[in-house]
Amino acid sequence: KLFSYVSGWVKSPLFVTNNIYKEKTAKLDIEYINLQKLYKKKEKFNSNEVKEYIKKNSEDLKEEYIDFSYAKISPKDLTGSDDFNELFFKKIDEIENKISNEVKFNEIITDLKIQVTKKKEFKPSNTINIIEDKIYSNRNENKVQLIDQNEFYLLFKIDSINKTLPTIDNKKFVDKIKSLLFDEYKNDFNRKIFDKIVNKKFSITDFKDLAETNSLNINQIQLSSIKDNKKFEINSIELLYSLPVNSFTLVNDDKNNIYL
Predict the structure, then answer these.
(1) Nearest to 37 by CA among 213, 161, 163, 196
(2) Which residues are registered as beta bridge partners of 65?
(3) Exposed (0-12), middle (13-18) or buried (19+): which is 35, by Cβ within 10 Å?
(4) What is each CA distance from 195 to 94, 118, 185, 199, in whole angstroms?
(5) How far apart are CA 99 and CA 106, in angstroms?
(6) Which of 19, 49, 52, 234 is the most buried (most CB within 10 A)?
(7) Are the beta carbons of 240 and 13 closer than 8 angstroms?
(8) Which of 210, 209, 208, 190 is nearest to 198 (CA)?
């Protein structure tokens, strides 16, 4: 019998188990090329390419800027005391009820007699502002909100949300476009190679020519088992072990560098 049943499970015969073990622990000799040097560098994309990309994707590239008003509410503001006592939380409940009943933000602020900060055309930047960044992240929720910030409560109102396309003079925006262009170029380049492999139009001659034409090294490595991920990411290792000798594929490492 090829199979025997034990407690309802199918038990594989010994020779099948041995073969699977041998396949997973077999040493694999790999030749590979790092494709990173073949991609067009981000800084090499010129202003015309940037402008053309913006023109084609203008609607998707628009960024949201918000106008808003906010106030920090502490126990001192509501009760005259520094303690988070019962009276303080009772007054917080009253503010929440007003918000639920759609009492206007300015009316709530007037009753509380607390200082308000106003911001125009705000969008988070590299300079972290925890309060204002928090408001921006909640911009699509209710127009008026009260949020517990542990040391105080944050009361704010989103006055407006505007979608605007940044100008070409915005260095951060241009850098973002160049990153998108780089990713697009990289994906297209990889896809062309992968399509050739799938359609069996990529040979050892193509492999060597690609390296020679671009002055790239053909590196070598020996994998000791299907768990040997010292160079490539583990799913890529499993893919390599599933392929026959003299076949090609694209794999990646843990930093998402791509190799042929």
Answers:
(1) 213
(2) 162
(3) buried
(4) 64, 54, 15, 6
(5) 11
(6) 49
(7) no
(8) 190
